[in-house]
């Protein structure tokens, strides 16, 4: 499984919003500069994430975006499911119930189910706030003499 640029950049955008929304709404221009991502590409990502339970939007002067919930209510898995369309390592696991004709006799299906379980449990165990806190802890030990 390979996470696309869109998924990686969406995660960086959500982290940036969590780190900077204390100042109110955050402009895409500011996120683009800090993250070194094109504003045009961020606009495509916002189109995917712009849902009432994910982002809040404010237009005009002082406009921009902010998280709709606390950063500890979003997991990495949530963000990647929105941008990637799912986390399943094989297409037959994308559907529930499984519609594969070979599922009953598939000798590799348990392997893919196990991998899927590990992926989802891991990515759903990490919140945006966890990443923000981890980054803050790292930079607090960065001393220059």
Task: Name the descriptors.
145 residues, 49% helix, Arc Repressor Mutant, subunit A, 6 helices
CATH architecture: Orthogonal Bundle
Number of domains: 1
Q: Which structural class is indicated by helix and strand composition?
A: mainly alpha
Sequence stretches where pLDDT stays below 50 over 5 or more residues: none
Q: What's the total number of strands?
A: 2
Commentary on this structure:
The protein is mainly alpha-helical and 145 residues long. A two-stranded antiparallel ribbon has the order 1-2. It has a single domain, classed as Winged helix-like DNA-binding domain superfamily/Winged helix DNA-binding domain (Arc Repressor Mutant, subunit A). The chain is elongated, with a radius of gyration of 18 Å. The model has no long low-confidence stretch (mean pLDDT 89). The N and C termini lie far apart (43 Å). The protein is built from six helices and two strands, in the order αααββααα. Strand 1 and strand 2 (64-67) form a beta hairpin.
């Amino acid at each position: 499984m390979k996470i696309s640029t869109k998924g990686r950049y969406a995660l960086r955008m959500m982290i940036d919003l969590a780190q900077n929304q204390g100042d109110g709404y955050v402009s895409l221009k500011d996120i683009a500069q800090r993250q070194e991502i094109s504003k045009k590409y961020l606009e495509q990502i916002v189109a995917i994430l712009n849902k009432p339970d994910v982002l809040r939007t404010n237009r005009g002067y002082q406009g921009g975006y902010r998280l709709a919930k606390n950063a500890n209510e979003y997991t990495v898995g949530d963000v990647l499911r929105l941008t990637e369309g799912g986390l399943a390592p094989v297409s037959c696991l994308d559907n529930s119930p499984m519609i594969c004709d070979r599922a009953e006799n598939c000798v590799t299906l348990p392997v893919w189910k196990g991998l899927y379980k590990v992926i989802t449990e891991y990515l759903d165990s990490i919140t945006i706030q966890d990443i923000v806190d981890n980054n803050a802890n790292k930079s607090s030990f960065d001393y220059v003499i």
